[in-house]
């Protein structure tokens, strides 16, 4: 019987960022990575402190952005790579009213460090009303982040590439198969619905589609945003997406959303393009737009870290530290993220 401190269930942003935090604490753990496709794997990885529909910000945006460089510098110490790509978001304006609203909001205390009041003209796409730049925004190299993290934890012998069977947990002896554990942390995304201990937690699956496209010219070195995000993955591979759909619960590609993406791209990119791949997966969202952290009300060694939503990188990096401090240092959780809010 192998003794470990933690079983982490889930190999998306939540699971890997939490594993990083526990590694810093010199805790032993294994990561169960099932065969389901996590929404983390196809995400844009955009780290953006501004809500681009109304040019506002969100809860703890500054704290999350401030912590981003720290955690990726720590990860770089063992993967040898820093996955942050310092390309800011450039938001194409739809009309003059948006430009005025941007300038007005740029004077607000919580937004003046994010909204650049010097507009730019992008050369590679149509933006006749110019574009606004979100200062300090960036994205991470999602593809290489997951590839390298899988390789790193696999080489350490802590990655278990099989689905976790909740029915095999023995609470009397704190064992799962040949593992004796102190804690289990469930980072399962939308698959929480299949977890008999947390299946009443209101995780809402939000289906997203994105495209990998080949286009015939280089684009400006920004994360270009009109309706969706466009940015370069490599010399001739580009990301465009993603969509939001709370109704379709199948894993099938929906042609209507593919058409929405094509229409959105054609609205500002007038060159030739071809679609290399269409990808779809589910984000784990919550109605109150807060992640879910904490402990089961009855089983005190079962915990949840979930609900990262569309801001998977920002929520995952910042709140993995919060979750680790809660587990390891007995620090209190903010009631806004504590899972207790669904039990009281």
From TrEMBL:
Pfam family, one: DAO
Residues covered by the FAD dependent oxidoreductase domain: 5-325
GO cellular component, one term: cytoplasm
Superkingdom of origin organism: Bacteria
InterPro entries the record matches: FAD-dep_OxRdtase, FAD/NAD-bd_sf
Residue ranges of coiled coil: none
Name of the protein: FAD-dependent oxidoreductase
């Amino acid at each position: 019987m192998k003794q470990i401190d933690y079983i982490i269930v889930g190999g998306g942003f939540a699971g890997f960022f939490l594993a990083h935090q526990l590694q810093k604490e010199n805790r032993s753990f294994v990561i169960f990575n099932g065969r389901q496709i996590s929404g983390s794997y196809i995400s844009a990885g955009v780290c953006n402190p501004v809500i681009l529909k109304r040019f506002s910000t969100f809860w703890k945006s500054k704290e999350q952005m401030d912590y981003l460089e720290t955690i990726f510098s720590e990860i770089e110490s063992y993967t040898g790579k820093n996955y942050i790509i310092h390309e800011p978001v450039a938001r194409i304006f739809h009309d003059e009213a948006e430009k005025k609203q941007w300038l007005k909001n740029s004077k607000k205390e919580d937004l003046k460090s994010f909204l650049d009041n010097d507009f730019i003209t992008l050369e590679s796409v149509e933006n006749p009303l110019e574009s606004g730049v979100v200062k300090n925004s960036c994205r991470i190299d999602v593809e290489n982040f997951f590839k390298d993290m899988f390789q790193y934890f696999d080489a350490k012998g802590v990655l278990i590439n099989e689905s976790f069977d909740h029915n095999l947990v023995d609470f009397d002896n704190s064992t799962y198969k040949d593992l004796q554990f102190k804690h289990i942390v469930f980072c399962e995304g939308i698959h929480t619905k299949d977890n008999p201990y947390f299946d009443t937690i209101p995780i809402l699956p939000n289906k997203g589609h994105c495209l990998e496209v080949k286009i015939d010219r280089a684009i400006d070195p920004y994360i270009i945003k009109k309706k969706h995000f466009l940015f370069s993955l490599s010399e001739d591979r580009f990301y465009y997406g993603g969509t939001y759909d709370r109704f379709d619960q199948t894993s099938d590609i929906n042609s209507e959303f593919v058409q929405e993406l094509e229409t959105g791209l054609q609205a500002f990119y007038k060159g030739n393009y071809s679609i290399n791949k269409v990808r779809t997966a589910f984000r784990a969202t919550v109605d109150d737009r807060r992640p879910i952290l904490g402990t089961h009300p009855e089983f005190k060694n079962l915990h949840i870290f979930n609900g990262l939503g569309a801001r998977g990188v920002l929520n995952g990096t910042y709140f993995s530290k919060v979750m680790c401090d809660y587990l390891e240092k007995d620090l209190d959780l903010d009631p806004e993220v504590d899972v207790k809010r669904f039990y009281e």
